[in-house]
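fyi for ur records
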Amino acid sequence: MADDPRLDPFEIDFLPRFRSGRGPREPFVNRYGVKIGDHEYASPQSPLEQWSEETDPAVMAGDEWVHPYKDIGFQTAQNRALFEQGEAPEPGPLQHPEHSAESGVKPPQEP
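which gave:
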């Protein structure tokens, strides 16, 4: 029952233009053996559950960690506005509600 694609609380109602080519609606297992899209968001095989100083955070980057229809990130106001109403987000710098997301590197000035 947990793998039923119709039951995911994080799935949103995508506009038709965002539905094609997204990938599977059902859960899948990535190359690390972690099931993605199963409504659980914690897996014994996940690097997050086995984190240490030796863990390279890059192992958790990439599309294989995000379900194309069932991801908690779709619930943000900006993502819902984009995917359900087609409203593009305001352009601007990446912001975090608590921490500075600036790299500290300033872009080169044009002559």
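The beta strands are 28-29, 35-36. thats all i got for now
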